[in-house]
């Protein structure tokens, strides 16, 4: 999900959410029970962006950021009361995870592709 308000996978772009810029708060929600990834911007949740392949059950997912140009970002991993965090995705902050919800992936990169 990028600053232009598009989600992308394998060089295919689709409208999703809104454009964002410096100072905005972008939230990523991962729902393992629904096998979905969604995003929010400045407290507004935009619903499902991607399906997580069933083959990725038990595979660790890690936060990552990328950009074309230099940028500065701050990661929040445990502040659900931040005024710009959306509440629609009913997530638990990464910092509040139970030890039983944390998996250690020793299998390497998942072989399954995200659906097109």
Question: Quick gist of this model?
Answer:
The chain is mainly beta and 116 residues long.
Write structural notes for this entry:
The chain is mostly beta strands. Helix content is about 0%, strand content about 25%.
Query: In terms of quaternary structure, what is this?
Result: single chain
* Major sheet strand order: 3-4-5
SS element count, helices: 0
What is the rounded Rg?
15 Å
Name the helix and strand elements from N-terminus to C-terminus, one letter apiece: EEEEE
What does the average pLDDT come to? Answer: 76
Q: Which class do the helix and strand fractions yield?
A: mainly beta
Which strand-content bin applies to the residues? Answer: 15-25%
Helix content: under 10%
Shape: globular
Distance between the termini: 15 Å
- Please report the total strand number as a whole number: 5
Mind summarizing the main beta sheet?
A: 3 strands, antiparallel
- Low-pLDDT segments: none
């Amino acid at each position: 999900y990028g600053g232009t308000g598009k989600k992308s996978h394998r060089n295919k772009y689709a409208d999703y959410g809104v454009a964002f810029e410096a100072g905005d708060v972008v939230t990523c929600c991962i729902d393992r029970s629904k096998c979905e990834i969604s995003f929010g911007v400045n407290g507004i949740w935009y619903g499902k962006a991607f399906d997580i392949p069933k083959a990725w059950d038990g595979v660790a997912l890690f936060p990552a950021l990328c950009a074309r140009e230099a940028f500065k970002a701050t990661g929040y991993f445990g502040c659900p009361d931040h005024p710009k965090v959306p509440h629609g995705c009913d997530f638990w902050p990464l910092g509040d995870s139970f030890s039983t919800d944390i998996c250690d992936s020793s299998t390497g990169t998942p072989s399954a592709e995200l659906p097109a």
